[in-house]
Amino acid sequence: AQLALEVDYESRRDFETRYRVLMENSRDALVLVDAASGRITDLNKAAAAILGSSPDALVGGLLSGELSAGNKSEFLDRLIAAAANDGATSLQSATQKSRRSVAIFPTLFRAGGDRTLLCRLETENRAEGVAAELA
Amino acid sequence: AQLALEVDYESRRDFETRYRVLMENSRDALVLVDAASGRITDLNKAAAAILGSSPDALVGGLLSGELSAGNKSEFLDRLIAAAANDGATSLQSATQKSRRSVAIFPTLFRAGGDRTLLCRLETENRAEGVAAELA
């Protein structure tokens, strides 16, 4: 049983490490949001930079509070509806702190019993880059 | 103890799910390579498409076998050396199957006691997109 515990611990640590490496090394700005509460559960530095604050200051807060996003429930409903289209539909908004235009591409998934939204944030510069890439 | 086990299992599953969602939804082509053996431990669909095969067929095989990469040990040494520069240095190569030029951006990390390389693959189209973005 001790060995099984150790193996399980190693395995958990392995995926946790992989998850953190992917978040840190992603060139996309990524925010994870609890779909029930609308609160930010994790985000990377690129996303924190767009929202104009540090990751530590943003985790635990409402994503809708960082955006010109109307009320919390309505914003969550719109995110979940957009997520039904599997990352292809975006919501347009603006950041509260810097008033930058931002497009939010949400994907919904279930982890540990909770529904979570993975939101990719795209500012206009990034969208131009992608457009050039597709041309 | 039963409860602790369940919590640990949930936690492992949670990070495993998050890891898989990030891999699948990344717009980057990502390959994880065991730094000791040079074997592919995981990759996403974007990376499999560049290498010209299915993820299932590629996992467990040598990354160097999919590239015009010289011998295995030399290729691994070059990847690890490039990774020392934290994702900013790339190796130039070409895919074996389609002879497409590809740039490999490696990052080295440790998970579960093993050293792993996270390799981002960039084809020329993608590199142009990024150049346009920076312009």
Quick summary:
2 copies of one chain form a homodimer. The first copy, chain A, contains 5 helices and 5 strands, in the order αββαααβββα.
What's the number of structural domains of chain A? 1
CATH class value of chain A:
Alpha Beta
How helical, in percent, are the residues of chain A?
40-55%
Estimated structural class of chain A: alpha+beta
Could you state the oligomeric state of the chains shown? homodimer
Query: Would you tell me the overall average pLDDT of chain A?
Result: 86
SSE pattern of chain A, N- to C-terminal: HEEHHHEEEH
Low-confidence residue ranges of chain A = 126-133
Strand order of the largest sheet of chain A: 2-1-5-4-3
Relative strand content of chain A: 25-35%
Q: Which CATH-level-2 architecture of chain A? A: 2-Layer Sandwich
Bulk shape of chain A: globular
Strand tally of chain A is 5
Output the CATH topology of chain A.
Beta-Lactamase
Radius of gyration of chain A: 16 Å
Name the pair of protein chains with the most residues at their interface, and give those residue counts. A-B, 40 and 40 residues
The major pleated sheet of chain A works out as: 5 strands, antiparallel
**Straight-line distance between termini of chain A:** 57 Å
Question: How does this structure look, described?
Answer:
Two copies of one chain form a homodimer. Chain A has 135 residues and is of the alpha+beta class. The first copy, chain A, has one domain (29-134): PAS domain (Beta-Lactamase, 2-Layer Sandwich), CATH 3.30.450.20. Helix content of chain A is 43%, strand content 26%. Chain A has five helices and five strands, in the order H-E-E-H-H-H-E-E-E-H. Chain A has helices at residues 2-25, 45-51, 55-58, 72-83, 124-134; strands spanning 29-34, 40-43, 91-94, 101-111, 114-123. A five-stranded antiparallel sheet of chain A has the order 2-1-5-4-3. In chain A, strand 3 and strand 4 (101-111) form a beta hairpin. The termini of chain A are far apart. Residues 126-133 of chain A have low confidence and may be disordered. Chains A and B meet through helix 1, strand 4, strand 5 and helix 5 of A and helix 1, strand 4, strand 5 and helix 5 of B. Chains A, B: Residues 15-60 form the PAS domain. Chains A, B: This is Transcriptional regulator PpsR. Chains A, B: It comes from Litoreibacter ponti.
